[in-house]
Amino acid sequence: MPIAELNQADRESLLADHPEWALREDGKAITRTLTFADFNEAFGFMTRVALYADKADHHPEWFNVYNRVEMTLTTHDAGGLSARDAAMARFIAGIV
Ligand code: H2B
Question: Which residue is closest in CA terms to ligand 1's atom 15?
Answer without folding.
Answer: 57
